[in-house]
Task: structure prediction
Amino acid sequence: MSTDRENWPEGVARHVLPSVDSTMNEAARLAPGLSGSAWIFAHRQTAARGRRGRDWRAPEGNFSATLVMRPDGGLAQAALYSFVAALALEAALAHVAGPHARLSIKWPNDVLLNGGKIAGILLESLNGGAQIAIGIGVNLARAPPRNELEPEAMPPVSLAGETGLNVTPEEFLPMLAQAFAHYDRQFRDYGFDAIRNAWLARAARLGEEITARTGTQTYRGTFETIDETGALILTGPEGRRAISAADIFF
Result:
């Protein structure tokens, strides 16, 4: 996989904006006019959002971008791009941080560095599932203050804070775009099995006890694997359970 910062994947557009309300909103506005994939990158976001509509802050020097693309296979297949994106993000960060960086992926797609959250991914369907928007935020320069997060949230970290490395968002974008193109090809050529195996090799707390909290229930058990739909398989006192959506704590 080539992630040279001068490279850019063939056939993928790039929109670079000085400021925008959010790259996810801009993706939704641009999507109807796009025939292929496009990265939307902003130096500044004024109204960014995270999962479940939560506010999401992007301090100067951190990375904010959204990829708009057309997945194969409908909405079920589209949801699996959450894992493709997580692998691409982990690979790009590994390329930057080097072989000694302790990176892992918290189900389904939060990337951790030294046990703290360095990046997150938000996936939304567009135009009835014909397109998807994959929003990615990375703490390159600084992590948000803990008091801006939910009490039980993973401790945030930054690349600069953990490694001393200074990488600009402009430098990081082509690395991520190349890494995503690599795993997208893997997915299209070999199916989710290839992505699943690669993801499991990087999974945080695999084989250990974790807590999964859905909207109404809390489950504790051993994180065994993920299945062919990307659901987390948890084994606890009540047996084996597939969980398709939850907040994970450990």
Notes: The mean pLDDT is 91. The CA atoms of residues 71 and 78 lie 6 Å apart. The radius of gyration is 17 Å.
